[in-house]
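Please check both lines for our workbook:

___
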Amino acid sequence: MHSRNPVILLVSREDPERSATALFLRQAGYQVLEASTGQEGLRLVQHGPELVLLDVNLADLNGFEVRRRITANPHTSIIPVVHLSANYGTDAERSAALHEGAAACLTQPVDRLDLLATVRTCLRLKASEAAGRSRDSSDPALVQSASAGRAANGKPDGVSHRSPEIAEYTLLHDALQRSRERLFLATKSARIGIWDWDVETNELTWDDRMYELYGIRPEDFGGAYAAWRAGLYPEDQALGEAAIESALRGTKDFDIEFRVLWPNGELRYIEAHALVLRDVNGHATRMIGVNWDITERKRDQIALLKAKEAAEVATRAKSTFLSNMSHEIRTPMNGIIGVADLLKATVLTPEQRDHVETILFSGDALLTVINDILDSSKLEAGMVQVESIPLDLGQLAEHCIELVYGGAAAKNLALLLDVDPDIPPMILGDPARLRQVLLNLLGNAIKFTKEGVVTLRVFMDAPGVDRPLVIEVEDTGIGISAETQAKLFHAFVQADMSTTRRFGGTGLGLAISKSLVELMGGAITVSSRLGVGSTFSLRFPCSVSADQGTGGVCSLELAGKRFLAFDESDDDRRIVSRSLAGLGLRVEWVNSREALAARLRDAEPPFDALLLAAECADPDSIQFACSLPPRSGQSLPVVLLVKRPLPHDQDRATQSALAAVLRKPVRSSVFAECFSRIFGSSSWPVGTAPVTTSLDGTGVPRGRVLVVDDNAVNQKVAVSLLRRLNYDAKVVSNGLSALEAIQQGAFDAVLMDSSMPVMDGLTATKKIREVLKEEKLPIIALTAGALAEDREACLAAGMTDYLAKPVQLEALRQVLDRSVGTTD
């Protein structure tokens, strides 16, 4: 190899570029002679430098002329001359320069690594040629070949007379040059800095971009490892050194991110990657790597992280706000609705009753608005989760119809429930959320329908392996325009601006329903015609539960019972027929009073019971049916199907002559209970009949309940509701008092508020379970917190059930029936 400190002559006009190049070469371990003119260069070349870097655009002599004089002189002809020019725009220009004798061509401004690689290559080639001449000096042909094919005047006479090494070098150099140019363009466009570190000599070489990345000038760079380390942000220096050491040991690639501190105090982020070159023994000799500035990306990441953290803080704040608002709003609502409901059950004048019903109606409307706003906020904050538990879809649909019956009856609307018997007895889903969606759709259908029918239909779609479940709510209401249908499921959208004034509502219900349906894996659509009606359709994948229950099959004594029925409504007739067939019973329909009388008189064998729609029969028809002579020694049971409750005076007179009065749409479970009682069978499924409880506070108390609540109005409402359900009640105002009361007396259940002074309900519940060892005592959360996390917190603390305020009588009855029992 050449000497440790080879001498290089740099002939270039005096400017910052020449000074930077000379400094770079000195940092790389070379001695540099500098000349600013051609004449000065020719004088200094006599000192015998190993290489000449020659600018072709000199002030006095043309660079090409200077090179010709160098190569013409026998004492300097073997010195490689590398041309530097800003005008090498094409491969043809470079080829011409090489043909005339240049060892290499570099385009100014010179890439630092390209310059270093060219210098090293030319010096190694020169040393190789010198060694060849020494070995083969006795062979004139080889000596002549080693002279690079120059004629007597020093000019090249063609490539054919060059040595094989020179020819090979020329080809390799051209290929290398083109590759470096492509690499230069790529690194320049990507603003990538390239560095080369000689591990053995500690020489660190940077290209121009590296100086920009570290915010320093070339003359301020020390050219060693320590210079790089000094540029790192103090807290990242240990990280950088550890990465270097791991790469040199071969235990980890050099792929890191670090910060650099510019002299002006600016902080920049750098990403670095490098390759480690090793000798034959595996020792690291060099590292070649790249740097690029990722400051903007890191700033974006930091901003995004801060925005995410801010959003999480806002979400937590929103959750806390929703919980507090729910508690603060529902607490007084519990008093308003609860007391009005209790007042309605007392003896009132017609005017007073009207006032109370107005309070109840307004309270329910306000509660609906509150629930919509809270649900919309929870969905927006991503705080709603759905369950996948076994549910009886038919029973859920019946329950929804039961809940909206009063609203439909008040408008004289017919309600139909059509459940396909092919529906599996138990499917997987979220009963609470599905009930919420159905109640919203049914409530809208009743609200926007002036007359006609509202139908809830449940069925399986077209036959197939994966038959989806379809639920439809159909009405004969005002309908929806095609324009509005396209945006109907957006928040705050109603049919038109007048809709809000005419019908009320927030416009959030359908948006909430859409979000809930999609969370459950389904889809919701609407089809409608103005003035004709609307149909909202829900489609879900039907996931059948492994637990299909015990079924509801009729006993052998009831199987095959025959019924004669009279109803003019085709829909009612179809639905009732399907329900009775599902229970193992048969029904025959007639369409007139005369046909009814004839079939009752002539039927052999006689019918077992008569089903009569009240809207199809006047009092004479009912009396006629009830006065038919007994067959086989028994009176014919008559079951009246009514659309709305009978007037009070007619109810007493009619029920004395009838076996039962059932309200349309008749649920399958109600049919089951009714026929079980009529025919004296005990084989009907347990729990299909509704449980009746006394609502007048009379009779033997069903149990003793501890009410734990700090609000005086809520205490009064809870005690009054419990008395109407025939429960004794004791009241305390905080969790600590509840612990003392439980220690002093026995209770069948506890109604526990969650937020109270002294000791809250969650803490009290944990102590009841852990300290008092009351593991089986039913503790029912009675709280104004209506969020899902409120419920989960109560159950996690050890509570057995949950009631959100305002509490209604029926909801309290159901939860107490589950917790205490239904003994009468």
The chain has 27 helices and 27 strands.
